[in-house]
Write a structure and sequence with these properties.
By secondary structure, the protein is mostly helical. It is 50% helix and 2% strand. Strands 1-2 form a two-stranded antiparallel ribbon. Helix 8 (115-121) packs antiparallel against helix 10 (159-166) and helix 14 crosses helix 15.
């Protein structure tokens, strides 16, 4: 019997996972730490308490959803800085479902009749330096105010109202969970179904919906903060952000498909070949979510700089590390 040969790509992935469990897990995130979305020092008034997360119908889940949805197409450190800069009043206007409900009730715009009509018909956007719409130009509106607060894409302010109309108006997460539980008996497949549902919100999509569902169903990353687990199991979810996409493209064949699904599947296949308990005895042996998190933590230059990573402070010993993936050494990072 020939000895098993480990490919360079597999060796690199194993090194990344080893680095993650030595440097990050149990120190920056995971057991013994506070999830970033529960820490006011990192996300300001957008923080939710672990205790409040346990309430399926409470406002904490809506705040978490909106706060996580802000993390699109920009570095984490930039979004967290923006969140910390917002006053409690502004954060509440964006993340309190009761305030949104009242704002919608006061607003005379016909586009608020349903989620589908709002998503398709509300045309709030930036017009030069102003934020306005074509339906009711010049009229004060909480969606316009939200767009100003986010200070991003012209229609970003639609996101909180879209989320409320899609889910919180019609029973909130409790109803969505009940529907998914009745439809699917397997916890990992339930997680995927929930991602599909939450990704329907305007400006959210698959990646951000996966962040939200995973946060509530992957206890290895957030012990005592995952109220949907074990009925919903997020361990097989994969968040394909720019860092994970780049890592996957470097480690896969040069002609491999560059779709979200192909990269996600690659992480899942690699995770099935690795027993994670060799790195930490208290994690699941199979967890694509943890493998993906290791890639993300290793490849995110701005997050490593913010933590004062040794490779940022000093000359990194790249010859004995992973220059092909290291954000401090690899070209194009």
């Amino acid at each position: 019997m020939k000895p098993q040969v480990t490919s360079p790509s597999r060796k690199a992935l194993l090194r990344v996972i080893e680095w993650y469990f030595l440097r990050i897990y149990g120190r920056v995130e995971g057991p013994g730490t506070i999830p970033y979305y529960c820490d006011p020092k990192r996300v300001g008034h957008f923080a939710v308490s672990p205790k409040d997360l346990a309430s399926v119908d409470g406002p904490a889940l809506f705040r978490l959803f909106v706060a996580m949805a802000m993390f699109q197409a920009r570095r984490d450190v930039v979004i967290m800085s923006q969140q910390r800069s917002m006053s409690s009043q502004v954060a509440s206007a964006l993340t309190a479902p009761s305030r949104l409900k009242a704002s919608i009730a006061r607003n005379g715009c016909p586009k608020f009749f349903s989620a589908e009509e709002f998503d398709a018909g509300c045309d709030v956007g930036k017009q030069g330096k102003r934020v306005d719409c074509g339906c009711r130009p010049g009229v004060s509106c909480h969606v316009k105010d939200a767009t100003v607060a986010f200070n991003r894409l012209g229609d970003m302010g639609k996101l909180p109202t879209s989320a409320w109309l899609h889910f919180w108006k019609v029973g909130g997460p409790r109803r969505i969970l009940s529907e998914v539980f009745a439809q699917e008996p397997q916890p990992t497949k339930r997680a995927r179904l929930l991602v599909e549902k939450f990704s329907r919100v305007h400006r959210v999509g698959r990646k951000l919906a996966t962040m939200f569902v995973s946060a509530l169903s992957t206890p290895a990353l957030a012990p005592d903060c995952t109220p949907w687990f074990p009925e919903v199991d997020g361990n097989e979810l994969v968040i394909v952000d720019t860092h994970v996409a780049r890592a996957a493209d470097v480690l896969r064949a040069a002609n491999a498909s560059k779709t979200y699904e192909a990269r996600e599947r690659w992480v899942q296949v690699q995770a099935a070949r690795i027993d994670l308990q060799q790195f930490h005895p208290d994690v699941p042996s199979y967890s694509p979510r943890l493998v993906q998190q290791a890639l993300y933590a290793f490849c995110s230059k701005s997050n490593r700089e913010a933590r004062g990573d040794a490779c940022f402070r000093t000359d990194a010993p790249c010859a004995s590390c992973l220059p092909v993936l290291c954000p401090f050494a690899a070209p194009g990072c």
